[in-house]
Amino acid sequence: MTDSHTAGPFIAAIDQGTTSSRCIVFDRDGRIVSVDQKEHAQIFPKPGWVEHDAAEIWTNVQEVVSGALAKAGISTADVKALGITNQRETTLLWDKATGEPVHNAIVWQDTRTDALCKELGRNVGQDRFRRETGLPLASYFAGPKIRWMLDNVEGLRERAERGEILFGTMDSWVIWNLTGGPNGGVHVTDVTNASRTLLMNLHTLDWDERILSSMDIPAAVLPEIRSSAEVYGTAKGALEGVPVASALGDQQAALFGQTCFSTGEAKSTYGTGTFLLLNTGHQPVNSYNGLLTTVGYRIGDDQPVYALEGSIAVTGSLVQWMRDQMGLINSAAEIETLASSVEDNGGAYFVPAFSGLFAPYWRSDARGVIAGLTRYVTKAHIARAVLEATAWQTREIVDAMNKDSGVELTALKVDGGMTSNNLLMQTIADVLDAPVVRPMVAETTCLGAAYAAGLAVGFWQDTDELRANWRRAAEWTPRMDAAERDREYKLWLKAVERTMGWIEEEH
């Protein structure tokens, strides 16, 4: 509900996420005026396959935008710009003339392209395209998913080569539909999303022709790569006339929303999985320690800002697993109470390599392990080991970033659902030996998209003005003894070793 404090104008942001789509309306102070959210179906056709219905997602996006405006009691005239942030790497191909998806979207978590990635690696393996793209050749990224659809959907390759088919990650799909769809929709993506396809050259910020031909993907399907903060077009329909003015992959949007505008500033988003991004300035830093080199953001014609990224596959989803599959807790919040009922982990370490290990190992042959079990261990100890798993995985990524960039982490800005767990936040500060800081607005992903869109239309003047908006809500400082930290880390790393090589290579 609007009151005198939230007189317009406003910026709206759409977050097209993995499990739901939402729209948040922000005021000039970067405060939330209203939120609307709607979940979409998760489709699992086979083990390891994950899909979304893109038409359902577009319907939901339209509903949450109308919902958020209605809840705020405002009209489109009050909305100065619209920003987009999205689940990254999720891949869609659709018919340019009708707007019909040719197949369900293949979600970032989907592993059906594992064998294709091995084949594409030839004799070089995972690093074949790393120099150009900053990425390992893995099923996670969009390029191999495009190739899979071209190979497996009847007649699709021919249509793609004739220019009848468009590819997009979810930002492109939403922007194309917002700006008119089959009737003049703008086919663009931004540098952050493009940098997750395995097809963009990090140095030129353009599609890499050599990689396109290696992967056998026709250039005709690709969107135009633009900056993260500029007006791509104006909306039609319910948002008639509102400038669509930003796009950022969700993790980069959180980096932006956390105002990590200087080299060495980092944020970690604790959700289903966890993503830690470190701003490395105007130079891409190659990783030799299992991290991804990615574009952090680019504002209009300014120089791009690069980041190192470490991703952890399983953090919040481990708590869900404890609740849904194991029945050891009834709600996610209960894990903190249970874990706090004991002093330590009782000697147990839980490495949740449910879908292999992500950074810094990238081992798809690993599976989850609980190590160090004795009769002494209770479910409370295991609950504590679950929280420690998130902290130690964060530590491993921070160590890798330090090795790659030579940049010491001074403080970690955190966001995401798990930051409401105080014991977890304290544990992270302890194992990093660095302060952990949570901002007032926890919705940093949407906020980042709003900030970028606002900059594009002059709603905010510059990044200094955005920095002044950032307010601290809570801070945790380390209080663990150094000797204990080292001892526990050693045991954690020992447990990680036990997860590897569980799945035998299938030929």
From TrEMBL:
Sn-glycerol 3-phosphate binds at residues 18, 88-89, 140, 250. It is an enzyme of class 2 (transferase). Pathway: Polyol metabolism; glycerol degradation via glycerol kinase pathway; sn-glycerol 3-phosphate from glycerol: step 1/1. Pfam families: FGGY_C, FGGY_N. Glycerol binds at residues 88-89, 140, 250-251. Residues 267-456 form the Carbohydrate kinase FGGY C-terminal domain. Its EC number is 2.7.1.30. Inhibited by fructose 1,6-bisphosphate (FBP). Signal peptide: none annotated. GO terms for molecular function: glycerol kinase activity. ATP binds at residues 18-20, 272, 316, 320, 417. Keywords: ATP-binding, Glycerol metabolism, Kinase, Nucleotide-binding, Transferase. It catalyses: glycerol + ATP = sn-glycerol 3-phosphate + ADP + H(+). Belongs to the FGGY kinase family. This is Glycerol kinase. The gene is glpK.
